[in-house]
Amino acid sequence: MIFTVAIDGPAAAGKGTISRAVAAEFGFAHLDTGALYRAVGVKGGDPVTAARGLEPTDLARDDLRTLEAGQAASRVAAIPEVRAALLEFQKRFARREGGAVLDGRDIGTVICPEAEVKLFVTASAAVRARRRWLELGGEAAAQPYAAVLAEVEERDARDRNRADAPLRPAEDAVVLDTSDLDSAAAVAQAVALVAAALAARG
Ligand code: DC
């Protein structure tokens, strides 16, 4: 069975949690496409060469989730040749046998416009920054909340305003605003949507 769930949205909106839960619920494979751009960003050197030569070990690094890696990812993601180098792998993953969940910025618009389910997961910048700050340790974090908020807003602006594959909801995406939802409620809504689409396919 070929069945793709495309989950897009800005940083720290809850895409990762929702994607992993949906993949586990339905036994689909999951690809965190942000990790590809993070790996290119932290690899250093020429980003186009890094993207063309990306290897599984690059994706296993333990420094991919830092704020710096997020910023580096957002910068290299604006380079069309970097995006082009990562395109085929993502397209193939999306249509693999057995079902796939991909989360990122352009899955429903560019990577897999034919996805059976498209979700755009969002939340206010303040809520997203607070979640990211708590993840980084809250009061014990190296960065104060204001710095995390500034980072989130800067990354949003760059991802939304780039010319190639900017962050935006596909026309047929269901928008899920998680500002006032806990993760269990957000996951339940996403799972219900996928279950309905699977049932409709028969
Ligand atoms: O989802 P994330 O925070 O790990 O993504 C890091 C950066 O990578 C994000 O700011 C923009 C870029 N990205 C992208 O351009 N397209 C994707 N499909 C996924 C991520």
How does this structure look, described?
The chain is of the alpha/beta class. The chain has one domain (4-201): Rossmann fold (3-Layer(aba) Sandwich), CATH 3.40.50. It has 10 helices and 5 strands, in the order βαβαααααβαβααβα. It has helices at 15-26, 33-43, 47-52, 56-59, 67-76, 80-94, 107-111, 125-135, 145-161, 183-201, and strands at residues 4-8, 29-32, 100-104, 117-122, 174-177. It has a 5-stranded parallel beta sheet with strand order 2-3-1-4-5, sandwiched between helices. It starts with a strand and ends with a helix. The model has no long low-confidence stretch (mean pLDDT 96). Bound molecules: 2'-deoxycytidine-5'-monophosphate. 2'-deoxycytidine-5'-monophosphate is lined by residues 11, 33-34, 37-38, 70, 73-74, 77, 104-106, 155, 159. Residues 11, 33-34, 37-38, 70, 73-74, 77, 104-106, 155, 159 line the site of 2'-deoxycytidine-5'-monophosphate.
Brief rundown of the structure:
With 202 residues, the chain is an alpha/beta fold. The protein has helices at 15-26, 33-43, 47-52, 56-59, 67-76, 80-94, 107-111, 125-135, 145-161, 183-201, and strands at residues 4-8, 29-32, 100-104, 117-122, 174-177.
Which key terms come to mind for this protein?
single chain, 202 residues, Rossmann fold, five-stranded parallel beta sheet, 5 strands, binds 2'-deoxycytidine-5'-monophosphate
Blueprint of the fold:
Layout: E1 4-8, H1 15-26, E2 29-32, H2 33-43, H3 47-52, H4 56-59, H5 67-76, H6 80-94, E3 100-104, H7 107-111, E4 117-122, H8 125-135, H9 145-161, E5 174-177, H10 183-201
Parallel strand pairs: 1-3, 1-4, 2-3, 4-5
Helix pairs in contact: 1-10, 2-5, 5-9, 8-9
Bound molecules: 2'-deoxycytidine-5'-monophosphate.
